[in-house]
Specification:
This protein has 115 residues and is an alpha+beta fold. The chain has 2 helices and 6 strands. It has one domain (9-114).
Length: 115
């Protein structure tokens, strides 16, 4: 143990890419009279970072979904217009509504495995 054990209520949870350009997560904790943030770790570094590696399919999926939708926070995804490459049985990829920015998880994950 490094501190004190306290009870807390999570008042918000945010997945975002806006602070430094990488995927991070913050949980805001209410201790009853005071509050504090927990998080801030880089969960995924995009290709623009020199140390980029796809070590987390979850991080890559979340990051690319946010970028394609043009939002900084997971909560902002609802109601956003995007394009989809789909047939009646499956959505293969999603794309930005006006930019030529597409996310095909199957392709991205296969390329990283081969590297």
């Amino acid at each position: 143990m490094k501190g004190q054990i306290k009870n807390a209520i999570i008042t918000s949870a945010v997945l975002s890419i806006h602070d430094h350009g990488f995927l991070d997560c913050w949980l805001m904790l209410d201790f009853g009279g005071s509050s504090q943030g927990f998080g801030g770790y880089a969960l995924y570094l995009p290709e623009s970072f020199g140390h980029h590696q796809l070590l987390s399919n979850a991080g890559h999926f979340l990051y690319r979904s946010l970028k394609v939708a043009g939002v900084d926070e997971f909560s902002q995804l609802r109601g956003k217009a995007i394009r989809a490459d789909a047939d009646s049985g499956r959505v293969y990829g999603i794309g930005h509504i006006v930019k030529d920015d597409w996310f095909y998880p199957e392709t991205d994950f296969a390329q990283e495995v081969k590297a």
